[in-house]
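Repro:
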Amino acid sequence: MKNLEKKETNLNQLIEKLGKLNTSYSQYNFDNKSVKRERDLIELEKVELEKKNQEILREHKYLTERVKRLEIELKSKKELEKKFNQDINDLNQETQSLVEEIEKWQM
């Protein structure tokens, strides 16, 4: 008898919990159409973000290559400038030597 009463009490508790659970779920309006619409919107947003990401990756690659080309160009120009400065120094020295020679001959 006690077993039967205990089972009945447990069953009543379970029914009460199920009733609470059922009402809590009914508060959420799980409409398949709204879920599908939300999923579709998220999918569209995902596709747009992936496109933007690809575009940014392409732009990054282009800019990286451009920076490398500019660095090479800058290095080349620095080398030319260095050579130009060296040529000017050589000419200055040669001019100085010539001026000294001329001064010697004038004396």
